[in-house]
Amino acid sequence: MKKLIVLFFISTGCFAFVTIADQFREDSPVPIPPSKQRRGNAEKGFNYLVTGDYLKSGIPYSMFLLGSQRDTNNFLQRSGNNKNLSHDFTAVKAPNGELVVAPNCLQCHAQVFENKLVVGLGNSLSDYTINREGTALMAERFLKNLKGEQATKYEAARDFITSIKTIAPSLIAPIKGVNLADHLAYLLVSHRDPKTLQWSEKNMLKLPDELIPTDVPAWWLLKKKNAMFYNGFGRGDFGRFLMASNLLTVTDTAEAREVDSHFNDVLAYINSIEPPKYPKPINEVAASKGRSVFEASCSKCHGKYGEVEEYPNLLIPASIIKTDSLLYTANYSNPQFINWFNKSWFTTGNHPAKLVPFRGYIAPPLDGIWVTAPYLHNGSVPTLEAVLNTKLRPKFWQRSFNKPSYNYETPGWNFEVKESATNNETYNTTLRGYGNYGHDFGDRLSQDDRKAVIEYLKTL
Ligand code: HEC
Ligand code: HEC
Questions:
Q1: Which sign does the torsion angle of CA 428, 431, 437, 438 carry?
Q2: How far is CA 70 from CA 46, 62, 108, in A?
Q3: In angstroms, rounded to a whole number, what is the distance separating the alpha carbons of residues 146 and 159?
Q4: Which residue's alpha carbon is nearest to atom 12 within ligand 2?
Q5: Could you give the CA distance from residue 33 to residue 130 in angstroms, rounded to a whole number?
Q6: Is 439 in the pocket of ligand 2 (CB under 6 A)?
Q7: What is the pLDDT of residues 80-108, one digit of tens each?
Q8: Is the CB of 214 under 6 A from ligand 1?
Q9: Cα separation, 138 vs 141, whole angstroms
């Protein structure tokens, strides 16, 4: 092999040398080394997460209550001004003292499941098919007209509205349920100076045309992982990545430093979350058989569960995993985001973070896998049964977003197979980035073994 590389080097130059060496390296799984994390206090972290001012601009409180339906659930048992807000919004004081409402992490990282709020479960019911620019413009027009004492309301909302106005028109998905946070991150940095984090009207990065759809990963998996995100590119201090939502409204690095000083606690909280237990009876005989099959066929990538846990932290290259490639290829076809981040404020100080791209995906821990449908990084497969049998994966499938209905046997969403994608509730696997192919490891098992593995997966 070495000779071949050298030969190529001589005949075609350095570029060929690099790409070939890259390919050789990525033909087998790559272990991810651990990186040091800050310690924190989980209880403080939870409080900050659901009441903290990591966003310091938003919609004035009274206006928000007028414009939204009052939420009487108070799932988080919050008091004071937060009592009337749904779990995914927080009332915070803007720097000028005005009370505003800002979205919080639970927009994407919590879901109401069977009438209970599960914090840490990725929200697979969010709707990015709507353009919210109109709403932002309306709010702006109204607030700008306020005079006298009321003028402070516009001042408190300005950063938030500017951000939403800029982002909304480019953040529209063709179907409900998929998340566009990757593109959101891209948009947020494209208007900011990497060193000072200051906002500029001008878009300073060339944006990719394509929006990458993802299914939000469950928070309880992070404690086992040495790297964040589906392609494992989040390395170094995890708190730094967690606080990146603050880019929505941050004004300068002094504010970023202040917000950052809470995210060791938020990480401690995230690491304290356990997955919900499967609530129905389990066939113990089948599950125990499933465990042996799993340990023979799946553990080398996904680890072992139970008394003694093991998790190998492996990146699986494209040539082996063969699932939709848009998410990781975007890092190579559009390296602007990675370049911005790797020379930004986030890489400075005594707990820096950095992005290290890879052509493939991390093999995730499978704790609580029964409740995290749909599956694969893009949410293209509705049930576990279909993850393990590629023949069962529907090309077009529709679930209900009004009355979400879960199937505890398959486990996954109840869905209808469709002939084509006729509305925005039909998942269309023929779109770029939405492919449901690859990860065909279950196809090699007998039907009985697959059933047994599913019974076992319910116990994780
Ligand atoms: C707009 C939706 C959205 C918001 C808001 C959001 N996230 Fe995320 N988050 C995502 C998506 C999508 C991913 C997966 C992206 C990927 O891997 O490519 C993710 C990934 C993560 C992960 C990594 C999990 C893993 O196993 O790798 C953590 C932890 C996390 N977010 C925490 C937070 C915190 C804390 C906040 C608030 C400060 C937050 N997120 C706000 C959508 C969101
Ligand atoms: C060669 C490594 C490898 C093997 C072997 C493997 N997997 Fe995976 N698995 C992965 C990777 C990587 C992903 C993420 C793929 C993606 O999202 O595109 C994944 C994803 C999954 C998911 C979806 C996770 C989610 O949250 O959406 C399930 C379920 C799963 N695997 C179960 C299994 C089972 C059961 C077996 C054994 C029959 C198995 N895997 C064998 C690497 C592997």
A1: negative
A2: 23, 12, 20
A3: 17
A4: 363
A5: 40
A6: yes
A7: 999 999 999 999 999 999 999 999 999 99
A8: yes
A9: 5
Best residue for ligand 1 mutational test, from 37, 46, 109, 265 (most atoms within 8 Å of Cβ): 109
- Looking at residue 4, its pLDDT comes to 37
Using the structure block, give the residue that is written with the tokens 């209900």. 400
Residue 72 CB coordination number (10 Å): 8
- Write down the pLDDT at residue 14: 39
pLDDT (tens digit, 9 = 90+) per residue, 275-320?
999 999 999 999 999 999 999 999 999 999 998 999 999 999 999 9
- How far apart (Å, rounded) are the C-alpha atoms in residues 219 and 228? 11
pLDDT at 337 over 50: yes
Mutate to test the pocket of ligand 2, among 383, 439, 445, 453 (most ligand atoms within 8 A of CB): 439
Q: pLDDT tens-digit profile of 5-58?
A: 333 333 333 333 334 344 445 789 999 999 999 999 999 999 999 999 999 899
* Ligand 2 site, residue 207, Cβ cutoff 6 A: no
368, two tokens: 């609580």
* Tokens matching residue 402: 């009004």
C-alpha closest to that of 379 among 185, 241, 202, 173 = 173
Residue 187 pLDDT > 90, yes or no? Answer: no
For residue 385 the two structure tokens come to 């049964």
| Amino acid identity for residue 250 in this structure | V
Task: Write down the pLDDT at residue 388.
Answer: 98
- d(C-alpha 193, C-alpha 181), whole Å: 20
Separation CA 336–CA 205 (nearest Å):
7
Closest residue to atom 15 of ligand 1, CA basis: 229
Burial of residue 27 (number of CB atoms within 10 Å: 0-12, 13-18, 19+): exposed
